[in-house]
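New to this. Look over this protein:
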Amino acid sequence: MVLRVHRQQKLAIETALKETVCCITGPPGTGKTTVACSIIEKLVRLERYKHLLIIAETNLAIDNIARTLRNKEFIVRVGTQEGIARDLYEISLEGQVNRIATMDERSMIIKDKTGKEQRNTELYLEVLEKSTVIPRNLCFCCDRLLAKLRFDFVLVDEASVTKETTLLCSIVHGCKHLVMIGDSMQLSPFVIQSHGYITEESRDLPDVSYLSNTLFHRLNRCNGVPCITLDTQYRMHPELLKFPSLEFYDNQLLSHESVKCFPHFVFKWPDWTKPICFINSTGYEKSIGSSYNNDDEAIVVNNVIETLLRVSDKDVDGFSKIYEGRIEALSIKQITILTFYQGQVKCIKDKLKARGVRVNTVDGYQGCENDVIVVSTVRSNKQGTLGFSNDRSRLNVLFTRARFGLIVVGNSETLKKSEIWTRWFHTYNAPIISSQEFSMVSVTQPEFTRKYEKPHTKSVSGKKTKQKIHFRH
């Protein structure tokens, strides 16, 4: 498979192949995985190195790369069976060793001199020696089998969340060529202090900020290290990109032509031109240990999901007469609910009637995306204390997960005490509606007539007019 790359991606690939150390900054949706796989494919064709090591902090990132390269004979995915996606078992180390053992009637498990069972190291090394590309999670950076191999080339995905201490284990085995791909504006490494995990109160302590600094950040500040930034995104609706580009990337991000033609869902956004909605919820937060939840928001989120999924074929036909382009009804798989706290994840799952909708924290969803994202901001108090809901890196991740639509549930008065949230409201001029008003925008409401207004269109005389369309069940 030949991966299609565009102007800035091509420059990043050429620089990575030419320079011994290179940093590639990839804002959300700019094709970091495509660039990584293209670099690997070219190096394999050039036969420059015997073994190429690909590492990342999460299994998700490694699986994405392995999945793109899965049809290649040169790849073996290293990791535990639990950590590797099921569809990648055939190219996993265990899967390939099992296949060879079955064909050659050799045992994967042997006994040592004391009679203790252990894996057949010779068989595993045989598979690794024949493999050119070895993707693995950083948890296996000190694997004894991999320590027997020499890796002249190392590619680090998710470099902005990779701690220096774990990265060192991967580059001490003869690394001569290092490529790091990440985004400094998204989440930093997850650090554990002596007294436990980072909390809102402890995250700014000096020892945490020091450990959160990465080699990727340091190299980006070095004058002698070439750093390329990918500037075109292929993921989200251009309106969804507007605020992240302004707030986090100096308004330098562009949208590719492919994302300018997006499907319309059987749902009327408050502003026809912007797939963004804010639903006000005034219920107060509750402190649950070191986390928070908000029962009222969880109920509103459940109502939102029910509204989005309450669609019939008749609704699709009706909307086809209103909108130009592709019309779709939303499925459960196309919706993800995100929040900033584990306590709220549990609260939403307890109240959610539509089983199968994914619920996750913002931290746990970095690197993922979906068609429609529903957000529960949780924090609601008179003091205007927002905690993680006001963290810039988390907000960057949050605002860049949706492809076609973003629905935010929160207390507008609390959020507007934050400068960044105030700028978000101002950028989109987002109307603040209630949960009841939101449910009325669903065309599935019986005996309800709504007036839809398309954007200004030119009449025969050349003057701008509004086209009003009535739709009745």
Remarks:
- Residues 32-46 form the longest helix (15 residues).
- The chain is about 35% helix and 20% strand.
